[in-house]
Amino acid sequence: KIKLPPPTLRKVVAGQIMARRLESEKEKIEKIFPILEKEYKEGIISKEAYEELVEKNKKRLEEIERKLEEI
Asked: At what angle do helices 47-70 and 6-41 cross, to 10 degrees?
């Protein structure tokens, strides 16, 4: 059993919590892409809206991936 000083332990726990939150957000965003594609194909959203939303979500995914690598 490893004993960590309280500040280090807090940092580790905070990192784990942040990683879980980011993974959860990543999963949600990944589920959006097929929905957007379906709505675009069905004419529910325009091509411009589809492209804008896909781009926005891709950028957010990249941001999440970078943050996860830093943890």
From this structure: 160
